[in-house]
Amino acid sequence: xxxxxxxxxxxxxxxxxxxxxxxxxxxxxxxxxxxxxxxxxxxxxxxxxxxxxxxxxxxxxxxxxxxxxxxxxxxxxxxxxxxxxxxxxxxxxxxxxxxxxxxxxxxxxxxxxxxxxxxxxxxxxxxxxxxxxxxxxxxxxxxxxxxxxxxxxxxxxxxxxxxxxxxxxxxxxxxxxxxxxxxxxxxxxxxxxxxxxxxxxxxxxxxxxxxxxxxxxxxxxxxxxxxxxxxxxxxxxxxxxxxxxxxxxxxxxxxxxxxxxxxxxxxxxxxxxxxxxxxxxxxxxxxxxxx
Length: 291
Prior knowledge:
Layout: E1 16-17, E2 34-35, E3 41-45, E4 50-54, E5 60-65, E6 80-84, E7 90-96, E8 99-106, E9 109-115, E10 120-124, E11 129-133, E12 142-146, E13 153-155, E14 159-160, E15 166-172, E16 175-179, E17 188-192, E18 194-195, E19 198-202, E20 204-211, E21 217-224, E22 233-239, E23 249-250, E24 266-268, E25 275-281, E26 284-289
């Protein structure tokens, strides 16, 4: 997966907007694109300490309150990076000390699952969560797989797509490296990060990764230069199941005053290979779908 380096800044873009479910004007930290198999959406509404549910068209369907005993110190909502698995279960994570807590909503029942390790969950393959943990020898950024039902964590060599194919993504020294050992020629793709029209300016980026049902990889890159010169890098990179990269597509500004730094925008509806970007604005939540 990806080692992220610096926080991004906004960049205008041009995806087609679809739907605009309103989720309040207060900041929804780490709300992210928790899309269910039926097309509906789950939003982490931290200010109201609830999981809000919206239809595919943006109509409010109800909410599940997060009880006090599930909050940090009984009052702080610190869950983030929600994702809906192929079985319809919603999971969001919270780091804390030497463990990680998963908030799990399954069939209307809310529960907590403890991972006995500090794991920064970053993506999933529809059934297993993947992220970075600490190895037995104290090494950081170790690729880790997590069972979302039991919390069992194990070190792995690769992350997997929803189709089961292996991959590994890394950003280092301005280079984006994507290893695809199951592609026809065991392909490794390497890209130098730069701003459009300013190739002489090295860029850094954050990246979000999701996969489609057919094994397509989607990488949402957001970043800029050290000096801020030349604008911002923001776009969606698509890698086909056979390892072919598409041109990077420009995207809308992912950050607003209502959400200046959430690391959760990219998602894929379970059972499909259509990516979406969720953006939290001052007047609600908007979803952009790839044409």
